[in-house]
Amino acid sequence: MSHPPSVLRQILKPAVIVGALGYFVDVYDLILFAILRIPSLKDIGFSGELLVSHGILLLNLQMLGMLVGGIFFGILGDRVGRVALLFGSILLYSIANIANGFVHSIETYAVWRFVAGFGLAGELGGGITLVTEILPKALRGYGTTIIATVGVFGAVIGGLVAQRVEWRTAYFIGGGLGLVLLVLRLSVAESGMFQQLRAAPTHVSRGNFLMLFNNLARFMKYLRCILIGLPLWCIVGILVTFSPEISGALKIQGEIKVAQAIAFCYLGITFGGFASGYFSQLLQSRRKILFLFLIFTALAMTAYFLAAGQSSGTFYLTILLLGFGVGYWTVFATIAAEQFGTNIRATVATTVPNFVRGATVPLTLAFNHLKPACGIVASAAAISFACVLIALWALRGLEETHDKELDYLEPI
C-alpha cells in the first residue's frame, strides 16, 4: 500500500527550488548595485558630485527597466507560459550582470543597468505565479514563503560578497549564478492551469495589460495590491538609504553605515518573510497576517524615530525590526497573484512588485520636498506613517485568498 507524499515532498517541487534561487540572484543584484555604486563609479573615473548624479541616473534607469520589464514579462508569462517567463528573465539578467563587470564608461553602465532591471523584473512574479498554480491550495503559501525567504537572503550574501571581492568580480559571480539556474530550469514543468488556458478558445484574452484598467472594480483591486507594498520600499528607499543622515539628526552615538543598515534590514526581511508566510498558513489567512505585520511595522517605525541619543547598536536593532515588519513581502506577493484569474495572473504578479519598487521615486521626491520645511526626521516620519496608513486602507478592500480556487478566467 503506497503512502501519500509528505508535505515537504509536495512543496519542494523544481519550480519552488528554481523560483527561490532565481529570486535570490534577483535580490543579490539589486543590493549589489546599491553597495557597488561608489567604488564602481570611482574605478571608471568619476568623483565628487558625479558619484551622486551618475548614481541617481543609473538607479533611475534600473528602476525604469524594472517597470517596463515587469509589463513585458507579465504579458509573456500569460501568453507564452510561466516557464518561458522565468527562462527569459534569468537569461537576460545573467547576461546583463556579466556585462556590468566589463563597463568602462557611464553610457555603457547606464545601458546595462537598464537591461539588468528589465531582466530582473520577471523573476519574482514568474516564480510566484507558477508556484501558486502547481501546488495544492492548502500548501501554496509554504511554496511562496520558501521563494521569498531564500530570495531575500540574497541581499545578505550580496552585501558580504561586495565587501570581500573587487566590484567587477561581484557582478561576474551574480551572472554566473544566473547561468547555473538556466540548467536547473530544464527540470521545471509548465503549470497545468496555464496549459488548460492555452487550450482555451481563441477569444479568451491572455496577458492583456489593459484589462486591469477597463473595469473599475478590477482596477481598484489591482491598485490596492500595489499600495499594500508601499511601506517596504519607503523603509528601504528612505529610512535605510538615508540612515546616516537621519541618525545624525537623531544624535545617534556612533557612525551608521549604509552597507550595514542594508544588511540588518534585509536580515530582518528574511526572518519576517519566513514568519509571515508560515503564520499565514497556520492561521489560514493572508489578510490577518498582513494586518498584524503592518501594525508591527508602525511600532518599529515609532522605535526608529524615538531612538534619539541611543547607541548605534540600538539604532541598527530598530532597522532589523523594520525589516522584520515588512517581511510580509512574502504574503504580499502571494495575495496579489491569488486575486486574479489565470489569463492575467502572471501580468499582475510581475507588475505589482515592480510598480511598488518604482514607487521609491515619488516617495523620495516627496521626502526631498518636505525636508527643507519640516526637517529630515519629521519628513521621513510623515511619509513612513502615511505609507502604513495607505497600506492598511488598501488591505481592507481585498478578499481573503488562502483557500481560494485559482482555476478561473478574468472576463474581458
Describe this structure in words.
With 412 residues, the protein is mainly α. It folds into two domains: 13-186, Growth Hormone, Chain: A (Up-down Bundle), CATH 1.20.1250.20; 208-399 and 408-412, Up-down Bundle (Growth Hormone, Chain: A), CATH 1.20.1250.20. It is 76% helix and 0% strand. Helix 13 (258-282) packs parallel to helix 15. The N and C termini lie far apart (48 Å). The mean pLDDT is 88.
Please provide a brief summary of the model.
By secondary structure, this protein is mostly helical. It has 19 helices and no strands.
Query: Would you report the number of β strands?
Result: 0
Global Rg: 21 Å
Q: Could you please say which CATH topology of the largest domain applies here?
A: Growth Hormone, Chain: A
Uncertain spans: none
What spatial form do the alpha-carbon principal axes imply? Answer: globular
Number of helices: 19
pLDDT averaged residue by residue = 88
Order of helices and strands: HHHHHHHHHHHHHHHHHHH
Note the gap between the termini. 48 Å
Residues in helix, % = over 70%
Structural class by helix and strand composition:
mainly alpha
What is the domain tally?
2
CATH superfamily of the largest domain: MFS general substrate transporter like domains
Please state the second-level CATH architecture of the largest domain. Answer: Up-down Bundle
CATH class of the largest domain: Mainly Alpha
